[in-house]
Amino acid sequence: MTKQTRDIPEGVKDGVKVRVIAGEAIGIKSPIHTLTPTMYLDFTLDPGSHLQQPIPSSWNAFVYGLEREGVISKKKSSPVKLYTLRLLGSGDGLEAWDNSSKPFKFVLIAGSTRSFRDQHKRTD
């Protein structure tokens, strides 16, 4: 069955809006099952808001700025600009701030570094 846009769960907490395409954020879990653990999260931060999103330390992750710019990782880091990709380091999790006067929109895409085959190897 094909999922429609209206089927994507979304929520808002403390000025952070998220659409959970895959994975989990702010207590909202996607109904989509992936063979390899994955996060695909579409965030919009209101001006002045702050987000902390855990990411397992063994995963690879990146963010991609879609509207405006905002700070990702450390509060004094350079902003993620529009249409810019930023790789996150292992174990960083995600911290994001919107210090501007307009909403900051970006996607977080993360996944396990282990393949489905590795996770389900037979040991006999």
From TrEMBL:
Q: Which domain of life is it from?
A: Eukaryota
SUPFAM superfamilies linked: RmlC-like cupins (SSF51182)
User: Where do the Pirin C-terminal domain residues begin and end?
Assistant: 40-112
Give the matching CDD domains. Answer: cupin_pirin_C (cd02247)
UniProt xrefs under InterPro entries: Pirin, Pirin_C_dom, RmlC-like_jellyroll, RmlC_Cupin_sf
Q: Where are the transmembrane segments?
A: none
Pfam family of the protein (one):
Pirin_C
PANTHER family, alphabetically? Answer: OS09G0484800 PROTEIN (PTHR13903:SF23), PIRIN-RELATED (PTHR13903)
The name this protein carries in UniProt is: Transcription cofactor
Q: Which organism is it from?
A: Lithospermum erythrorhizon
